[in-house]
Amino acid sequence: MCLLSKQGVWIMKSSTREIIEALPILEGKINAHENLFLTEQALDGLNEVEATFLKLAWFFEDPKNVSFSIELLYQNLENEWLELALELIFHFFKKDTYLIKKSHVSIVKEDDEGYFNQKQFSDYLAENGLDYDRHKLCMYYKRGVLPPYAFKLAGKPYWNKESVESYCENEKDKSKKESIIYDEGQIGQFATEEEQQSLKDFASQMYKISKSHQKK
Q: Which one has a higher pLDDT value, 209 or 90?
């Protein structure tokens, strides 16, 4: 049975709407699962991909009465279609049923280019001309200076690529502005790295103070 609003209007699940956006040909077939004859008629003429997504939509709309075999994903889908189906299944359980109230698990490989661990994060910043290493990034992470991580895997934080790139650009911009306030060439004459870092921190604080005065 499909969900109806108080006004008696059929409310389509958001997961089903995603399917229709990807495969508009299925739009007029969503309610066909309520009748065996209509079910067979709706599937007639569809290719394997379309038929699989239609059956998935039927399950989304009426999960108590309609079953869906995950074997169909294995048999009929691959590449972007398989990815879409898996994303929609997760979306269904999280957004349409609320059975997943808070996500604690994310599938990611160590070499996934879309996410960065602390070492990859620091390496990326160093490759882009910033004075960062793993120790410094770890220290900034503990201080809460870094952008929020996307998730933790085995206790380790991972950031998505967009967050890393954005942070890198902000740091490069900040570095340029700080050099106007304090000539970094003068810092090099001090003997220890600790003194150099101290003056860099001072320059950073001065920059923040100047920005706060500009806002006023």
A: 90
Pull the structure tokens for residue 142. 């503990």
Query: String of b and e for 166-185 (b: at least 16 CB within 10 Å)?
Result: ebbeebeeebeebeeebeee
User: Are the C-beta atoms of 54 and 66 separated by less than 8 Å?
Assistant: no
Question: Would you state the pLDDT for residue 4?
Answer: 41
| H-helix or E-strand spanning residue 41 | helix 36-43
CB atoms within 10 A of CB 152: 11
For the four alpha carbons of 19, 21, 77 and 31, in that order, the dihedral sign comes to positive
Q: Which residues contact 3 (CB under 8 A, 6 or more apart)?
A: 10, 11, 13, 61
Closest by Cα among 11, 101, 20, 6 to 61: 11
Specify whether the CB–CB gap between 76 and 51 falls below 8 A: yes
Helix H or strand E segment including 158:
strand 156-160
SS3 of residue 115 by DSSP? strand
**pLDDT at res. 190:** 44
> Cβ distance 4 to 10 under 8 Å?
yes
Asked whether the beta carbons of 98 and 142 are under 8 A apart, the reply is no
Question: Looking at the predicted structure, is the pLDDT value of residue 141 above 50?
Answer: yes
Q: Is the dihedral of CA 47, 40, 10, 101 positive or negative?
A: negative
CA distance 28 to 30: 6
Which tokens hold the place of 135?
A: 């120790």
Strand partners, 152: 157
Query: pTM above 0.85?
Result: no
The yes-or-no verdict on residue 69 having pLDDT over 90 is yes
